Amino acid sequence: MGVPFEALLPYGIIVGLFTFTGVTLGKLRRMQNGGKTARHSIDQWDRQMMDRDRRITGYLRGQSDRPEAPPGFEVNSPWRLEKRFT
Amino acid sequence: MAARAARFNQQVLIDTTPLPDSIPKVKEIGATSAPLLSAAFFIGARCKPYNDDYMMCKTEANGRGELECMKEGRRVTRCAASVIADVNTHCLSEFRKHWMCLENWNQQLWQCRRFERDLNKCVFENLKLEKVIPGAPADEIPVHLRKRQIYAHSYANM
């Protein structure tokens, strides 16, 4: 006789649960990144450019290809403040 | 002009006072990181003298470059904005495809050579700007012209 399918059901459940977790986490990460793949291996330059993107478009992964910036861009650069250690 | 990057910063201060009227106004570039990366070599091709001027001014200013090199900086901004405006008028669809591809691949240029070839062709025909990698050895084919990209993940975009 062939392989009984009841024996393979638990494996099927395990694989199915892993697949579900993987696909859900992948979709969540895509949603967090505006429908694109996540950035990885970002260095200080990339962080600075992504900060600039957020200042221009409002979203961390938002992009725009206008030659001129929106009106508030010249003045919305942040000064990062540190607390004093006394 | 901070001497070092801020560590453990919890607060951010946004000072909305604009620059004084004695400084001539120039519109900042509105392109974000991916379109700028896509157009970077064309900006370099057209704006090389202004960019070199600015870099030399900053190097010679010994730390006061942010204040003293504003005139050269305005020239750089205007030239780069002109390149982006020209690319938008002539090659908008190829430009958009290229930077959208870059956004999906972690802004790595070698993953999107297919769209880059179309963009380079369109920009060369309309704007006469050619992408040249400065400092590349002259006896090898430059990376962006090679047929096979050894690090690309997808064969479709090579």
Which SSEs are present, and which pair or pack?
The complex is a heterodimer of chains A (86) and B (158).
Chain A: H1 5-32, H2 44-57, E1 78-81
Chain B: E1 11-14, H1 33-60, H2 65-68, H3 70-104, H4 113-127
Task: Provide the structure class of chain B.
Answer: mainly alpha
Rounded to an integer in angstroms, the radius of gyration calculated over CA atoms of chain B is 19 Å
Low-confidence stretches of chain B: none
Tally of helical runs of chain B: 4
Strand content of chain B: under 5%
- Whole-number tally of structural domains of chain B: 1
Q: What's the rounded overall pLDDT mean of chain A?
A: 92
The helix-and-strand class of chain A reads mainly alpha
Radius of gyration based on Cα positions of chain A? 23 Å
Main sheet makeup of chain A = none
Q: What is the N-to-C order of secondary-structure elements of chain B (H for helix, E for strand)?
A: EHHHH
Oligomer: heterodimer
Largest sheet of chain B: none
Cα(first) to Cα(last) distance of chain A is 81 Å
Organism (chain B): Patellaria atrata CBS 101060
Protein name (chain B): NADH-ubiquinone oxidoreductase
Keywords (chain B): Disulfide bond, Electron transport, Membrane, Mitochondrion, Mitochondrion inner membrane, Repeat, Respiratory chain, Transport
Family (chain B): Belongs to the complex I NDUFA8 subunit family.
